[in-house]
């Protein structure tokens, strides 16, 4: 049985980066794999959240999944915190994960900043919770953006360590770093990842941005002083041109090289106009559907309740097996 598991943290607005790097790539699995997609709210607490906004943010991510084409009748969409097994398995995995492995995690180093003494324990243990998210369902495939590659390698190492200590239990999941332009960069700095936590809203396209906002942001996107090249090799040291052409290539559904030829010798304004055009065409229906779904919270919550039930039933099987292998007392 092939099973896909993936998730996104419900922090702030969803960006074009989440859409291209994650959600859009999940659709391909809907009819070939059993699919479980969740909102990683436990992970989001590694940074202080506003309790008054969290529920709405979680619904917004669920709405984005569905509006982007994740059909809830053939997949399970649920909240990570609704399945306590994530936390429980994370604890058990914590106990077999050497600190040395966690000390190698580059995302912790980036997020903890200079004063590591002040970083919270959750941020440090984040990758183990992610391993639990995946192993709890014995996922065979995990489609994520390339910034999560190291966490998936750790997941495989933890699964291997568990299997070696307690006998064959977990499947080593296959990471799938999918699709072209999976790494969408900031519109203000072609060398930084497009991020929902960047202080400048001009750095990103949000899935909830309306057409005028998208056009404005693309117009203001950083460019360089040279005409566009006719060859993708010449994009290597031109991060802004590369980023815009990459995004254009995905939405215009043409290979990158063809896009380079299309704009060879042109200045950025021609590319920006075409890019804004394809973006507005692709994102408007998603935004419209998200707005519609957000006005139907009962419908969304019903989907999340169904997703929860399905996830709970798979999780219960795994936990039972883990308890047994670890020799927990059964009464
Ligand atoms: N850490 C992931 C991210 O920030 C989100 C995530 C949490 C995840 N648990 C996961 C992704 C399990 C895939 C599988 O993008």
TrEMBL record:
Residue window of motif 'KMSKS' region: 193-197
Motif ('HIGH' region): 10-18
Main location class: cytoplasm
Cellular component GO terms held in the UniProt record: cytosol
One Pfam family per UniProt: tRNA-synt_1b
EC number: 6.1.1.2
GO molecular function, one term: tryptophan-tRNA ligase activity
GO terms classed as biological process: tryptophanyl-tRNA aminoacylation
Chain positions recorded as ATP binding sites: 9-11, 17-18, 145-147, 184, 193-197
UniProt binding sites for L-tryptophan: 133
HAMAP family in UniProt: Trp_tRNA_synth_B
Family: Belongs to the class-I aminoacyl-tRNA synthetase family.
Name assigned to this protein: Tryptophan--tRNA ligase
